[in-house]
Design brief:
This protein is an alpha+beta fold. The protein is built from 21 helices and eleven strands. Helix content is 57%, strand content 7%. A hairpin with a 2-residue loop joins strand 8 (462-463) and strand 9 (466-467). It binds protoporphyrin IX containing FE. Protoporphyrin IX containing FE binds at residues 140-141, 152, 208, 211, 329, 332-333, 336-337, 340, 404, 409-410, 413, 477-479, 483, 485-487, 490-491.
Length: 540
């Protein structure tokens, strides 16, 4: 109700009832004026506060308008700009009644505090777990405390065992030489453009399923077929992510009513579970048949390892728990190395001098092998890199790390604080606050990497020609502290093996005019893939 309504109504009153009518309207006038005054006060107050925060804070919707304006072009760059101006940390005030309030930081001191020093005060938290529970259950990725610790310990022993290393090296030789290179060769022969990101995603999905389940779903085959399990897994992940941008009460209502994205999630999870439980049942049968057999299977995949273990009461783990273990590892290891490789090949296309140096390193390693073998195997087409040779590729490791610094596969990550805390930079955190650490922005901070922070320079990782790793709180692509990525060593081995095997045979040329931009997702995919053509080195 505004003053215009008041005028109209007062004219319609008769003279005798004028005074009493006016008096009867008084409460309404006061209400509308009060409402107007409060609105003006809140707006002025919010705008003044906004100046202090660096972003306007609006009544009810908080900083949402600034965020929406900022992400029209590139959300990562927008967040980086705000962090830069705010000295590395800012508090985002989301709309009332949403889950969007959080503290965003890119300050290495805060990262060390939350990932290591005060690790137990910054768990994944109930909000995260509740949102991803249908997909991830009690698996390592969402668990905290004892549930997490036990899985971490068992999986860590496994990941560092010689058998596991041998199995992963074998699986890569098989995937790269029998599947990846023939697919690339077919694209080369047909002079066709190929989406390298898609090919690499297929490769790492097959590879991580071999590690987790001990089976190969066969995504990377000529013709690039659609594999129902891979499709269901992707759909289930995407539908779960939608929950993060939907008010909790709303997605819960949709789930209850079996509508929209929740229906899509239920259906895709059903297919994921059918596949997983089928593999689990078959494996249990296989292992029970061979129990007592000295020549039992040499399987070293995670499912076999966890199936053979017993819980603290001496009982076998439930099928549901085994399903959660495998699904979490597939999620953790399926896309991260492939998107990192896609950004790496794109960067090489823009930096031929880096490609030259990588080739120089590979050729030296191949020549060394040749001189040891009296020339044999040095230039053979079917050259397969050995683990000790991959280890020697230090410049390649630097070039991959540099790609991950600028394009981290996990661009942002988050924690929830369980008690009142103060960050080393002075930011006060109330119990329950969500903390987002902006890994993407950290790679682009002058305060961390110097004036050339935006340049692609593998040399920054080398000292006297040897690769030097960086503090995990500065280079956070693999997380840090007790929850450091468990697959880090494997991921480097995998990326180096794949990159060297491709680069030795082909020059990868990004298709002219192909747009390369990041997709807004929890993993840093290229929004339109990476369309490339291939030129064989021996034809150049
Ligand atoms: C370039 C490749 C990779 C990158 C950049 C990467 C990055 C990360 C990051 C940032 C986290 C922390 C996630 C969080 O806690 O929210 C993480 C955790 C994890 N990663 Fe990786 N990852 C890569 C490859 C892999 C691979 C290939 C595997 C397995 C085969 C793997 C297994 C895991 C596991 C199991 C965790 C959970 C660790 C825990 O919570 O204790 N990662 N990774």
């Amino acid at each position: 109700m505004n003053s215009c309504n008041y005028t109209t109504m007062s004219h319609s009153q008769s003279a005798s009832s004028g005074i009493s009518g006016f008096l009867s309207l008084l409460p309404e006038i006061q209400t509308s004026e009060l409402f107007l005054a409060v609105s003006i006060f809140i707006t002025i107050h919010s705008l003044r506060q906004g100046k202090r925060q660096g972003l306007a804070v609006w009544p009810v919707v908080g900083m949402l308008p600034s965020l929406l304006l900022g992400i029209r072009n590139d959300m990562y760059e927008w967040v980086t700009g705000v962090l830069d101006r705010q000295g590395g940390t800012f508090t985002f005030r989301g709309p009332w009644f949403t889950n969007l309030h959080c503290v965003v930081t890119a300050d290495p001191r805060n990262l060390e505090h939350l990932l290591k020093t005060k690790f137990s005060s910054f768990p994944k938290g109930e909000y995260f777990r509740g949102t991803v529970r249908d997909l991830l259950g009690d698996g390592i990725f969402s668990a905290d405390d004892e549930t997490w610790r036990k899985q971490r310990k068992t999986a860590s022993l496994e990941f560092h065992s010689a058998e596991f290393r041998a199995m992963t090296a074998r699986s890569l030789v098989e995937l790269v030489h029998s599947r990846l290179l023939p697919v690339l060769e077919a694209a080369h022969d047909g002079r066709a453009q190929i989406d390298l990101q898609d090919v690499l995603l297929r490769l790492t999905f097959d590879n991580v399923c071999m590690i987790a389940f001990g089976i190969d779903p066969g995504c990377l085959h000529p013709g690039l077929p659609e594999i129902p399990f891979a499709k269901a897994f992707e759909d289930a992940t995407e539908a779960t992510i939608i929950r993060f941008i939907t008010p909790t009460a709303m997605w819960k209502a949709l789930r209850y009513l079996d509508l929209g994205s929740e229906r899509w999630l239920r259906r895709s999870l059903k297919r994921v579970d059918e596949f997983a439980y089928d593999v689990i049942r078959t494996r249990k049968k296989e292992l029970s048949l061979e129990s007592g057999d000295k020549n039992s299977t040499e399987r070293t995949d995670l499912l076999t390892v966890f199936t053979r273990l017993k819980d603290e009461d001496g009982r076998a783990f439930s099928d549901k728990f085994l399903r959660d273990v495998c699904v979490n590892f597939i999620l953790a290891g399926r896309d991260t190395s492939s998107v990192a490789l896609a950004w790496f090949f794109w960067l090489l296309d823009k930096h031929p001098e880096v490609e030259e140096k990588i080739l120089g390193e590979i050729n030296t390693i191949v020549k060394e092998r040749g001189s040891r073998n009296g020339g044999e195997g040095a230039e053979g087409e079917e050259l397969v890199f050995r683990p000790e040779e991959v280890k020697k590729m230090e410049y390649l490791q630097a070039a991959l790390s540099e790609a991950l610094r600028l394009y981290p596969s996990v661009p942002v990550d988050h924690k929830e604080v369980v008690e009142d805390e103060v960050f080393p930079d002075g930011t006060a955190l109330k119990k329950g606050t969500k903390v987002v650490y902006a890994i993407f922005s950290m790679g682009r901070m002058e305060s961390i990497w110097g004036k050339d922070c935006r340049d692609y320079k593998p040399e920054r990782w080398l000292k006297d020609g040897r690769f030097m790793s960086e503090s995990a709180y500065k280079f956070t692509a693999f997380n840090g502290g007790p929850r450091l990525c468990l697959g880090k060593d494997f991921a480097y081995y995998q990326m180096k093996f794949v990159a060297a095997s491709i680069l030795r045979r082909y020059h990868v040329r990004v298709a002219e005019g192909h747009p390369v931009v990041p997709k807004m997702a929890l993993t840093m995919y290229m929004k339109y893939g990476l369309k490339v053509t291939l030129c064989r080195r021996d034809e150049m």
